[in-house]
Amino acid sequence: xxxxxxxxxxxxxxxxxxxxxxxxxxxxxxxxxxxxxxxxxxxxxxxxxxxxxxxxxxxxxxxxxxxxxxxxxxxxxxxxxxxxxxxxxxxxxxxxxxxxxxxxxxxxxxxxxxxxxxxxxxxxxxxxxxxxxxxxxxxxxxxxxxxxxxxxxxxxxxxxxxxxxxxxxxxxxxxxxxxxxxxxxxxxxxxxxxxxxxxxxxxxxxxxxxxxxxxxxxxxxxxxxxxxxxxxxxxxxxxxxxxxxxxxxxxxxxxxxxxxxxxxxxxxxxxxxxxxxxxxxxxxxxxxxxxxxxxxxxxxxxxxxxxxxxxxxxxxxxx
Length: 319
Description:
MetI-like fold, ABC transporter permease, transmembrane, cell membrane
């Protein structure tokens, strides 16, 4: 397996190079520039010309790409034009916020989705199954941003149970206060994201459980007198996880990339909000670095899904 993983990583290298070229060229092709809105409107065009020249924005794209690539191999992704900070520092700061939100969302997604899917499949046609299916249909029919806006309005503004912006309160002190405040800020967007993310898990798992109940190995286990709980726990559950495991890697890396809708609506300072701001400000260095990071995460998600699938089903091996 380790040889396969190494081979897959080596295959990713030319893919990442091609992706970096495309991203760099498309970012440079965006209309506008990163300096127009940063200088005084009464300033002369010579100042704008000077900023463009010293930052190399008049050089041919291939020369700019080569300079960026050389700096990349030295661990330097450039300076953000808007924030006047190194891009690596910005991504590290925002990435940490996104990591905690993604971790909590992923945990809640599976904590809620797996029991619901198992329960609905085990009680097919009964009223609990009907209620769970209504929940999945309603959630699937609603756009994600509508769920987030409703959640903010009801639980944030009307009931005032959760904070509605930021990642940590300004008046906290001490590591315990900081940790509790951070948890409060990710609780609502994480739960709303988890409720939306459970839809596919519940539907896939329910269908697999219903099919597994009629399979030959389950009928054989029942004929041998195996307890029903043991059948569901050791036979049906594990075999029903295969379709869920096949896209688990994409889900994990997708959350790490930052939820743009959640971070925008909650003004949560993660990588998703950073990406939106970078597009608005024509911050080329940040755009290029983030899109390249998202591409690497997507490639990593493909490998991670295969590995998770091979762990869930020992018959499947990554070749």
